Amino acid sequence: MAPYSTLLLSVLLFLSLSPTLLFADSTYSGDEDTVHLHFYIHFIENQTEVVVAKSNIQVPGSFYNFGSIVVVDNPLTEEINITSKPVGKVQGFFSVMDSLTVVWSANIVFTTGEYNGSSLAILGPDDITKPVREVSIVGGSGCFRRAQGHILLKTVSVDFDTGDAEAEVDVYVDTWRSK
Ligand SMILES: *[C@@H]1O[C@H](CO)[C@@H](O)[C@H](O)[C@H]1NC(C)=O
Ligand SMILES: *[C@@H]1O[C@H](CO)[C@@H](O)[C@H](O)[C@H]1NC(C)=O
Ligand SMILES: *[C@@H]1O[C@H](CO)[C@@H](O)[C@H](O)[C@H]1NC(C)=O
């Protein structure tokens, strides 16, 4: 705990129970900044993502069977063209539900630019029938340490023969900026 006096702490607690005031790590200013980032994910079957487990239960309309675990190390780029400037990778996996929903358990890892070396942890369901899906950001590292937020995913193209796809990503993340 930071060295608040008991009196000061009581006043602060009385004034507000907001996380900002209760945030006692002295390396953080307590100022929240919302960062917006925009880029594209490329899903390339058997190259940058691979099905490592599956059942034989088919899901109508789905490229994957129920219970599939798909490990991803998919590239992120600034523009839709995969040859455009790299941003990083989405690394982890998604699991396939008995519907057109997948559940993400992955990290957005930045390998270039201002956020090189930082990452965002994403977790949650993604109903791929919806034009825009929201997935939670539950944490992060580096510039995004203790981050919270969400991403919005929009499918841009899908190849139903190969399973390859491209999606647009908007990141909205609140960070606690270091002093
Ligand atoms: C992607 O960029 C490369 C290199 O600039 C270019 O040759 C190619 O035509 C582009 N592809 C598309 C689909 O725009
Ligand atoms: C990103 O950071 C790594 C590790 O510090 C460094 O090796 C690499 O050159 C950086 N990449 C860019 C594009 O700045
Ligand atoms: C990916 O690999 C699996 C297993 O070898 C194969 O069944 C599938 O057809 C491959 N998909 C593509 C698009 O190459």
Automatic annotation (TrEMBL):
Database matches in Gene3D superfamilies: Allene oxide cyclase-like (2.40.480.10)
Q: What Pfam families does this protein's entry cite? A: Dirigent
UniProt KW keywords: Apoplast, Secreted, Signal
Highest taxon, organism lineage? Eukaryota
Q: Where is the signal peptide?
A: 1-24
InterPro entries documented for this protein: Allene_oxi_cyc_Dirigent, Dirigent
A GO BP entry is:
phenylpropanoid biosynthetic process
Query: Mind naming one GO cellular-component term on file for this protein?
Result: apoplast
Q: Where are the transmembrane segments?
A: none
| Protein localization | Secreted, Extracellular space, Apoplast
Q: Fill in the subunit field for this protein.
A: Homodimer.
Family membership: Belongs to the plant dirigent protein family.
> What is the purpose of this protein?
Dirigent proteins impart stereoselectivity on the phenoxy radical-coupling reaction, yielding optically active lignans from two molecules of coniferyl alcohol in the biosynthesis of lignans, flavonolignans, and alkaloids and thus plays a central role in plant secondary metabolism.
Protein name per Swiss-Prot or TrEMBL: Dirigent protein
